[in-house]
Amino acid sequence: MNMWIVTTGNSDIILKHDKNWGNLYSEVRYDLECTEFASPIQKDPYNKEAGYTVPPRILGLVYGNQSDEYKSDLEFPLLDTYYQHFLDKKTKPERIVILLTDQAEIFDEDQRLYEKCPFWQDTCTLTPLLEWYFKYKFDSHPEFLYLTPKTTDRGIDNWNQTLVLVQEKFRTLDCNFLKTVYVSHQAGTPAISSAVQFMSLARFGKQVKFLVSNEYEPREPIFIDSPIYLKGLQLQEAKALLERFDYSGVKRLLKQLWEGEVNSQEQKIKDLLDMAILWNCADFKKFAQAREKLAKERLDEWWWVGYEAAYLGMVRLEQGNTVEALFHSFRAVEGLIRDRNRSSKESLHQLISKLPDWQKNVDFKIFNETTRKERNSLFHNILGLEEIEVFKRWETNNKKAWEARVLNCLNYITGQKFTSLEKATLMYDVHKELKNLISNYELKI
């Protein structure tokens, strides 16, 4: 089955002439909050043949209940173009879904007094005219989906709200047995057009074919296959996942974009992602080995793993994994204490007692006397661990202070003077390099 999804806007139906407008408009004029629509607007001031435009809600109210003889006053320029294209291609959508708008709930009577109020641009009253058109042209009964915003500051020009509205409506569309989904999304507000474009790809994927009008030849619409759009969306999603340090997710998405043999840029991205995945699994040694020459100097230092573990804890917090964030921050400090005395078989308590003047280091003293004591009890009761609990166990109250305390503990143990965990780790540069490469990556079209 083929389905065609169509958006509607304020110029989808126009008047060929204004000969009957005055009489027909007078029949509904006094039922309207605004009475400033007595004269249709000429599309081209120098050419009456170009037709006249009227706000969609008004056009529907005036012509919706008229007999068919008056329908000849109307022209459907964009829909006629699409109809001819289907005719030329000898294909026909078996199911037609039309998106209409109704903002009645967010504009009160006082606002409707003004002809520029977006309320008058709603297309919901065009239902009978569109039913007539599709029956006449396609011998089809279209389905109508109404976008009806409920919040006054979130009309159909609000991008986020419109995306939610379109998503809700698309959930009602049965995906079974669909072969091709044609989508004509140019009409309507930019927010509607964008939302329909995005959600049709999200819902129907490679089944989508965009049927759009040609900017330079309006009478010659074109099909655009969905893979072009899908690749763009996947690349944007990969960038978003990279911000969350989800390297496996990034690799999965990019593999779908790389068809055939990868080029040098793609190979570089792939290699860096493989390193990042090792690091994300706390396999720091294999990660550093893969980094080769750039990591050689750091590998000679006994303390480098501790800083990587601490940075992984910071990343886990960014990902919302508070338990692992707490675990890696403990692990980083305790691990360095043991690594500092690798040949010793003494207990952690004994090793700490031998650290020089540890009682005078405020950060390490808190770690030893507060954080360590609460660690075991916390790990036995990890359900519902809030972010603030991570900070409290280190006697801090925010992310910045927590990171500083962990870093100061590491610097105390190692004798280093790093000013940030980013500067102390190999992974930070890998992530930065990945971000730069993916930001500048160009799709193969």
TrEMBL record:
The identity of this protein, by name, is Uncharacterized protein
